[in-house]
C-alpha cells in the first residue's frame, strides 16, 4: 500500500470527492488511489515515482487500464497531441508487462468503431468496467486527454468552490462528482489506482 510519506493529501479518507485539476497552466492532474485514501501527487511526485507505480509495483493483482483520447470537441479548437500521446502511453504499458487485452482505448479517430468512440456513454461505461470486480492488490490505470473546464460550484459540495470536469467527443460535460461516483467510490480498500488527466 502506498504510504503518504512525501505526498500531499488532498482529500479526506474515506474520500468525498475527486477533481481533475490544473497545474501551472499545464493542465495535468496525477493522483494515486491507495486503498480508500486519495493523494494528490501532482505537485510533489516526480515522474520517476509515477513511472515506478506503473512498472515496479507489479504485485499479484490484476492490471487494467483505460486510455481516453479526444482531439475534437464540438465548438472547441482541435487538440494536436491526444491521439499520439495515448498511443505512447499504451506502448509504455505494453513494454512494461501490461497485457494488451487489459488495456482499453477510447479514441475519437474516424477508424474507431462507434462503441470505441469516447462519447459520454462510452466513457462512463468503460469507467464502470475498469473498476468492476476490483479487489485489494489490483492495479488500475486511467489516462484521459481532452478539453476540460473549471467553473464555480453552485451546490456547495466542493472544498475549493469549483467544479471541474472533462468533455466527451460528443460535447457532453462529465463533472468531477460523476467521475468520483463511477470510478472511485466503488474501489475496495487496498486497490491501487493511478490517474492522469490532461486538459
UniProtKB/TrEMBL annotation:
Peptidase C14 caspase domain: residues covered: 63-179
Matches recorded under InterPro entries: Metacaspase (IPR050452), Pept_C14_caspase (IPR011600)
Residue ranges annotated as transmembrane are: 21-41
Q: Does the keyword Amino-acid biosynthesis apply?
A: no
User: Keywords, A to Z?
Assistant: Membrane, Transmembrane, Transmembrane helix
Name of one Pfam family that matches: Peptidase_C14
- Single biological process term from Gene Ontology: proteolysis
What molecular function does GO assign, one term? cysteine-type endopeptidase activity
Q: State any GO CC term.
A: cytoplasm
Homology family: Belongs to the peptidase C14B family.
PANTHER family listed in its UniProt record: METACASPASE-1, METACASPASE-4
Its name, as the record gives it, is Peptidase C14 caspase domain-containing protein
Organism field: Sistotremastrum niveocremeum HHB9708
Amino acid at each position: 500500500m502506498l504510504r503518504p510519506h512525501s505526498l500531499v493529501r488532498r482529500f479526506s479518507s474515506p474520500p468525498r470527492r475527486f477533481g481533475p485539476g490544473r497545474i501551472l497552466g499545464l493542465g495535468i492532474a496525477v493522483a494515486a488511489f491507495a486503498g480508500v485514501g486519495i493523494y494528490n501527487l501532482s505537485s510533489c511526485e516526480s515522474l520517476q515515482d509515477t513511472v515506478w507505480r506503473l512498472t515496479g509495483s507489479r504485485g499479484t493483482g490484476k492490471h487494467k487500464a483505460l486510455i481516453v483520447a479526444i482531439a475534437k470537441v464540438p465548438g472547441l479548437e482541435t487538440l494536436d497531441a491526444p491521439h499520439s500521446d495515448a498511443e505512447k502511453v499504451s506502448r509504455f504499458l505494453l513494454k512494461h508487462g501490461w497485457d494488451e487485452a487489459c488495456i482499453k482505448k477510447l479514441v475519437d479517430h474516424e477508424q474507431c468503431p462507434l462503441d470505441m468512440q469516447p462519447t459520454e456513454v462510452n466513457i462512463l461505461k468503460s469507467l464502470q468496467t475498469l473498476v468492476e470486480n476490483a479487489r485489494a492488490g489490483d492495479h488500475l490505470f486511467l489516462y484521459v486527454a481532452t478539453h476540460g473546464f473549471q467553473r464555480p460550484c453552485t451546490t456547495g459540495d466542493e472544498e475549493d468552490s469549483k467544479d471541474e470536469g472533462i468533455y466527451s467527443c460528443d460535447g457532453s460535460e462529465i463533472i468531477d462528482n460523476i467521475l468520483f461516483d463511477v470510478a472511485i467510490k466503488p474501489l475496495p480498500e487496498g486497490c491501487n489506482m493511478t490517474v492522469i488527466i490532461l486538459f
